[in-house]
Amino acid sequence: MTRTLAETGIMSILRGTVPRRDSVDQKPFVTTREAARLLNVSLRTVQLWAENGILNAWKTAGGHRRISVESVNRIRGEQLRVTDGYGNTPGPSTILLVEDDPVFREFCKLKIASWQLGASVITARDGFEGLLLIGRLNPQIVITDLRMPGLDGFQMIRSLQSTLKRMHIIVITGLNDHQIEQSGGLPQNVPVLRKPDPFGQLEELLRMKLELLPRARGAL
User: What phi and psi, each to the nearest 5 degrees, are found at residue 195?
Assistant: First the structure.
């Protein structure tokens, strides 16, 4: 039987971690940690995708989460689709824009390009695509909406908690402070700009953060 590259990678991990009596063919699943390694995302991201039904997962009698090989392969396919054409390093500095409204997303992208910041701008339609691009391209700055279908901006930011020290996040939203707090709030260091016209503040923020990038990289 011919296996895909994704399946081959999964099987290699399983051979090193699953006892011989539990053969790969009988156990077409991986652990949360193995899925994170195969998908090149954080452990928290895998947990979030499992909780939201993006990954087909269940818990054993002992409370350990298992994730189906089929759903991991499906996400790997989505990673290739979403990142196709970007390569691994789209530019010296990369800005990711996550926005579900296609008109606002395109306008915002064109507006940022008009400022000639010397950074590549890539886009995602929701938090799920945003996390796929973050895992593949490691952008320095992420601009995101909050209310989006599927995986929203709140969930995406929560899954990035461990990377917030080396990734700048800017929120653009129509929600007021009370609505944001009702949805769980945001980290203190995440600036919030308001729709429909955040662009004066956004340009100033982007220029400031891009100027800080070489110094921040040297400190890592």
Answer: -75, 155
pLDDT single digits (tens) 98-143: 999 999 999 999 999 999 999 999 999 999 899 888 877 889 999 9
pTM of the model as a whole: 0.68
Integer-rounded Cα radius of gyration of the chain? 19
CATH of domain 10-80: 1.10.1660.10
Where are the chain's structural domains?
10-80, 90-219
Domain 90-219 class in CATH: alpha beta
Cβ pair 128, 151 in contact under 8 A: yes
Report yes or no: 119 and 93 within 8 Å, Cβ to Cβ: yes
